[in-house]
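Q: Predict the bound structure with calcium ion.
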Amino acid sequence: MNQPQQQETRAPVNHRILVVEDEGEIRQLIRYNLEREGFTVEEAADGAAALARIRRRAPDLIVLDLMLPGMPGLELCRQVRADPEIASLPILVVTARGSEVDRVIGLEMGADDYVVKPFSPRELVARVRALLRRAGHATEPTSDGLYERGRLRIDFDTYQVWVEGERKALALREFELLRFFVQHPMRVYTREQLLDMVWGRDTFVEPRTVDVHVRRLRQHIERDDANPRLILTVRSVGYRFDPSALD
Ligand code: CA
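A: Predicted complex:
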């Protein structure tokens, strides 16, 4: 029998996606649509089971419903981001329609992107693909090497960051934002420019996402994130990175 045409357009790399959702029907719907695109899908019905699975063998991406019994989705998000071994795992959050608060908190807790229920399967798959494309850069070998200045040390090859010798658990996007700042010091960038250059064109996020990530990055690298010296806010324009504050 001939293989259907669709077979050839499937994902060349068999990415493993963990779907965390307690409602079986929705889990099946997500699974069906991801498998149709060639992804390998694993399932977890609650946060604790998901975390155990991730620690045993990390997937390439998590699709995480925020409404879960037991450990809430946001708590799972927080625990993933707090563990340096798995902190850069891409997380696509699923939230209820119109829950602005969930979206904002989700991004603050380290989610990389979100879809709002009810979502179209096409949208979900597009966002999964976009996140994996971004994350793919993290696993490609680079020759960017090491950045060391004052109390900040960044290994661009392994995506590790140390502040005063202590290893920090940065989400992938926080790392990319930090890299951009370090490589483009002193220049002022608008939120839109940062979205373009750090998030890329296949982005679905709003400019205020930049503020959320800057805030999280400041918590990692500033001495006092209430009085930032490294990532400076340039009022009504955007942000500027001043590495001299590291000395
Ligand atoms: Ca749910």
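A: The domain at 2-138 is CATH 3.40.50.2300 (Rossmann fold).
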